[in-house]
Specification:
The chain contains 2 helices and 7 strands; from the N terminus they run E-H-E-E-E-H-E-E-E. The chain has helices at 14-27, 55-65, and strands spanning 2-9, 32-33, 37-38, 45-52, 70-72, 75-79, 90-97. The longest helix is centred in the N-terminal third of the chain and has 14 residues, at 14-27. The N and C termini lie close together (8 Å).
Length: 100
């Protein structure tokens, strides 16, 4: 099913953005990402990563994204001040898994 991850970076450093996007591909080659934009939520940029994942693939991806989240398992968020995210340049992630 569709998995969508909204990623907000702490800054607009292009090297950080490219590193995060590379890590997304390492986490799952089924995820692709949108172009980034200046984020209205931070001093950085934001973008989406999305792909069609099975429940098992989603479980595996979730374990790699963060060690702590707020929300239910199909729709959650994690912020850098209270969770260990998969890259130090990320301020926040919002993850959604769409079941049938």
């Amino acid at each position: 099913m569709l998995t969508r991850i909204f990623i907000i970076l702490k800054d607009d450093n292009e090297e950080n953005e490219l590193r995060v996007k590379s890590k997304i591909k390492e986490i799952s080659d089924k995820l692709s990402y949108s172009p980034s934009r200046n984020s209205p939520y931070s001093m950085g940029v934001d973008f989406y990563a999305a792909g069609d994942l099975t429940r098992d693939e989603f479980d595996d991806v979730s374990k790699k994204l963060t060690d702590f989240y707020i929300g239910d398992y199909n729709s959650y968020s994690a912020r850098s001040f209270n969770a260990k995210l998969f890259d130090e340049s990320i301020e926040e992630i919002q993850v959604e898994y769409f079941d049938d």
